[in-house]
Structures are given as structure tokens and as C-alpha cells.
Amino acid sequence: MNLTINPNPGTAALALYDSARGAVAAARVVRDPQVMSTICRDAPALAGQLVAQLPEAGAGLLHGITLGTVLAAGWQKSRELRAAAVRSHEDGRRGKIEPVSLATHSITSEHRPYVEVYADERKVFTITFSVDLTFTIGLLSAAIRDGRLVTLRPGGDCEVAVSWGVDGFKIGESKVPIRIPSVAVPLGAGILLARPPS
Of 71, 111, 125, 132, which one has the greatest count of Cβ atoms within 10 A? Predict the structure, then answer.
């Protein structure tokens, strides 16, 4: 089952910038001669073309990182939620809801999307971007049954800190509040967190 959480803003790009400003910020960075000489060290003749194309490519990568997916993956790795999933298999608890509340907590996620640069259909090099996310979430209520996460109810304040760079050079960073609907999100049969003991 795929878990979908829809925060606002919904992508790393929108947390950093509104609309096309990501490409503008990247363009400012890649126009720096030191940045381009580092990025194009193996093919300096391509620097002029990359200055024009790299900002759009990098901004496009930001749009591919959805904040809801990152949040869901972080909650699935939570020690507290996993411990509750293990407890839910104990005698007397099978089939019953195991409630879990997470106080203020953080979820961090590092992403390294990249673009490959080709010249005359030959790969010349790869340019790696960095997108680092840190969520601070005020409160989360969850329900566990039979080792599965069956309901999430986010609540409280939430913010995300986003840092974006290319090849070791910072393009931008921001810390913004995000709104996660404070409604119970039923997960159908649930997401397996712990198998029953053998």
C-alpha cells in the first residue's frame, strides 16, 4: 500500500521558492566562474551551454521530491511506532488498536538527484545536486494493529528546513511552516511495521 500525505507546500521546490524562482536562484549560482570551472573541470568547453541548461534541470529535480512521501517514509521508520507494532503481537493485544503519540520529533532526509551531461551522444559527466530536508513535527497520533500502522493523525505545528546545492555549492536554503491536514488518515489494511514472532 502506498501512503499519501499531502502537506502544503507539497514539494521541495515549493518549500524553497514559488514557481520558477528555483531556476533563477540556480542560474545565479552557476553563472559564477568558480562554480562552473568546478562543475566542468572534465569538459570546460561545455560550460557555456551548461550555464543555460543546468538551472532548469536542477529546478526540475526539486519538483520531484514530494514532502508527503518523505514524511511517510520517516514515520514508517519511527522506533516508537515499530515498538508499538511489536507489542501489538503480544497475547491479549492481537486485533486491538495500540495507540501511539509522538511528541515533537524530527524527520531528516537527504536526496542526491543528478543530471547526466552528454555531448554528441556520449556521457561526459554527472552533476549531483543535494537536497537536505529536516521536518520538525509538533505532534503525531497513530494507531497500530497486528503489527501494522493503520491510522495517522498529524497535528500541531510543523516546519521544514530545506537546503539545496550543486556540486558542493549552496544554491538556497529556507525554513518554512507547512500545513498538514489534522485529520485521521486511514491506511486500509495498514503498513507492515513488524511481523508476528515465529
Answer: 71
Contact 85, 121 (CB under 8 A): no
Q: Which residue's entry shows cell 549560482?
A: 29
Read off the pLDDT of residues 152-190 as tens digits, 9 standing for 90 and up: 887 777 888 989 999 999 998 989 887 766 777 777 788
Contact status, residue 174 vs residue 164, Cβ threshold 8 Å? no
CB 193 within 8 A of CB 41: no
Q: What is the DSSP letter of 104?
A: S
Radius of gyration (C-alpha) of the chain in whole angstroms: 21
Which cell numbers in the block locate residue 48? 557555456
CA–CA gap between residue 63 and residue 19 (Å, rounded): 10
109-124 pLDDT tens trace: 999 999 898 888 888 8
Question: In whole angstroms, what is the distance from residue 20 CA to residue 5 CA?
Answer: 24
Whether the pLDDT of residue 198 is over 80: the answer is no
Phi-psi sector, 26: left (phi>0), alpha (psi -120 to 50), beta: alpha
Rounded Cα–Cα distance for residues 113 and 131 (Å): 8
0.70 exceeded by pTM: yes
Q: How far apart are CA 17 and CA 59, in angstroms?
A: 10
To which H or E segment does residue 54 belong? helix 47-63
